Amino acid sequence: MMKWLVVLSALVAFSECFHKLPLIKGKTAREELQERGLWEDYRKQYPYHPMAKFYQDGTEPMTNDADLSYYGVVSIGTPPQSFKVIFDTGSSNLWVPSVYCSSQACQNHKKFNPQQSSTFKWGDQPLSIQYGTGSMTGRLASDIVEVGGISVNNQVFGISQSEAPFMAYMKADGILGLAFQSIASDNVVPVFDNMVSQGLVSQPLFSVYLSSNSQQGSEVVFGGIDSSHYTGQITWIPLTSATYWQIQMDSVTINGQTVACSGGCQAIIDTGTSLIVGPSRDIYNMNAWVGASTTQNGDATVNCQNIQSMPEVTFTLNGHAFTIPASAYVSQSYYGCRTGFGGEGNQQLWILGDVFIRQYYSIFDTQGQRIGLAQAV
């Protein structure tokens, strides 16, 4: 009996170290704007520029991704004030709107009020966030940040004083960056690094599961791996650079033919980008191979009836093949069907965003500086 009790208490202790934060799959800015008949004007004014956050110029990066739909709730301060944030493995800072912001984007989002938190402290640094179009300015401060049942003390974060207009259409209030401190604006220690150094998680890793269709079910797990979200083996891939979650990609193939990333390239696993993004020429080629026609705006549209017969696309990462079927890379909406492959200039960096992560449960190991990928269920 005693032996079983010991085992049982060990299991209980183990399960408690597991912090799950549910993500909501909400409406995207694109859907919101399409419903209001504003999308065509908006996209001309704010071209999709997913690479903006990957240019290092000392300001904090942010993307104007109109297709982002996953966000979770965190709270800041004592008593807690809650915010919807995008958990972004492509940037490293946390920021939310504040009562000191009068931009349109701050009018329809939750605003943090420092005067209502007894644990709040102002920092002495200004903060500037570069978007693909326009910017956000604000100040740095610190407070208690609660994420998935974990309370992080003295977390430095940004509070906005002005925000770019496109933010008004985003569902989330702010961003919580999960990349490395090496790319954090003002060298701020990221939230997850503080979780680790404050001993709040049992393992220095977090994992992300994005559900395909339902609004519920997606989650970030801090400090552990949830085996119910994947099947088969986890393939571990070493980082080529601990800045973003960057790895080696060997090629992109369709029916055994190399169609992109010929001779190898670098890729980033990024929860904060909705599509799979690569150099325009490569993406154009991939879209042509799967039978999509690219519109003037860069949307690659397909006939919804053809999804069943469209080919799989294989991404070979550090010698391991990861395949995405058409049912996963084509999105269907009231406005028709389009592929989830987006091109941007001749930038050689690829972004494997939500289209990829929905297929592959992703584990981000900060200490081992590696990414684990397993077939999502």
Question: How does this structure look, described?
Answer:
With 377 residues, this protein is an alpha+beta fold. 15% of the residues lie in helices and 40% in strands. The chain has eight helices and 28 strands. The strands form four sheets. Strands 14, 15, 16, 17, 18, 21, 22, 25 and 26 form a nine-stranded mixed beta sheet that branches. The longest helix has 15 residues, at 2-16. The model is unreliable at 5-16 (pLDDT under 50).
Largest sheet: 9 strands, mixed
In percent, how much strand structure appears in the residues? 35-45%
Spans where pLDDT lies below 50 across 5 or more residues: 5-16
Secondary structure class reads alpha+beta
- Annotation, overall tally of beta strands: 28
The helix count comes to: 8
Shape: globular
What integer value in Å does the Rg equal? Answer: 21 Å
**Helix content bin:** 10-25%
Average pLDDT for all residues: 88
Q: What is the multimeric organization of the chains shown?
A: single chain
Distance between the termini: 37 Å
Concise overview:
The chain has 377 residues and is of the alpha+beta class. It is 15% helix and 40% strand.
Layout: helices, strands, pairs:
Layout: H1 2-16, E1 19-22, E2 24-25, H2 29-35, H3 39-45, E3 60-61, E4 70-76, E5 81-88, E6 94-97, H4 104-107, E7 121-130, E8 135-147, E9 150-162, E10 174-177, H5 191-197, E11 205-209, E12 219-222, E13 230-238, E14 241-242, E15 245-254, E16 257-260, E17 265-269, E18 276-278, H6 280-289, E19 293-294, E20 300-302, E21 313-317, E22 320-324, H7 326-329, E23 330-333, E24 336-339, E25 341-343, E26 349-352, H8 354-357, E27 360-365, E28 370-376
